[in-house]
Amino acid sequence: MTINSTNRLCKSIQLIVDELCPEKWSKSIFINEYIDHALSVTQINHLESPTRVSLDKLSEILSLLPEVETLKLSSLSFSNPTCLSEKDIEFVFCLLIENHITKVFLKKMVQIADIYFLSLISPRINHLQINCINYKHVESVVGFILTEIKTKTNCLLRVMCFCVATLDDDMGEKLEKMIKEVNLLADFMTKHAMDKIYLQWK
Known about the structure:
Strand 10 and strand 11 form a beta hairpin. This protein is α/β, with parallel strands linked by helices. It has 7 helices and 11 strands. Strands 1-2-3-5-7-8-9-11-10 form a 9-stranded mixed β-sheet. A two-stranded parallel ribbon has the order 4-6.
């Protein structure tokens, strides 16, 4: 396992966890020793894992980094790709309650469990960015998450951003039409920029 820390801004430190293979840790040093060393010289606000990570390992890392505000993940590993187990759900709430995460970026969303994960964390953060396969994927995620948070009065989520490689100019308008037709949001706006669709509401 290797960890790289980069100073993006004066007070904004990012920790990149390159490798999460437990069998390799014993050959070098344990993860808590890496993080303790980094925290002895700086405060870490952003965590990124460019490799697949399990919820329990993510929870372990975040328990050592209570000041993390931004979480950027390549993809998540669940015990069941079609749903979340009670243990998975417990890990989700632990990693959110014990940290100050406000922004989550998910690079790959390839299983149903990813959507359940996002629906659980969405009320507790204010910004979600997700890489999607195509527009239909965007529509499914928006419908699921907005339906889930619609009944929650204390939801903090206000911005969702979707990255789509093959993004057409009219996809923003199509998304607006879908949201209005099923009455998911009242006061909102969409914006299309490059390969991204932004959905923002009050």
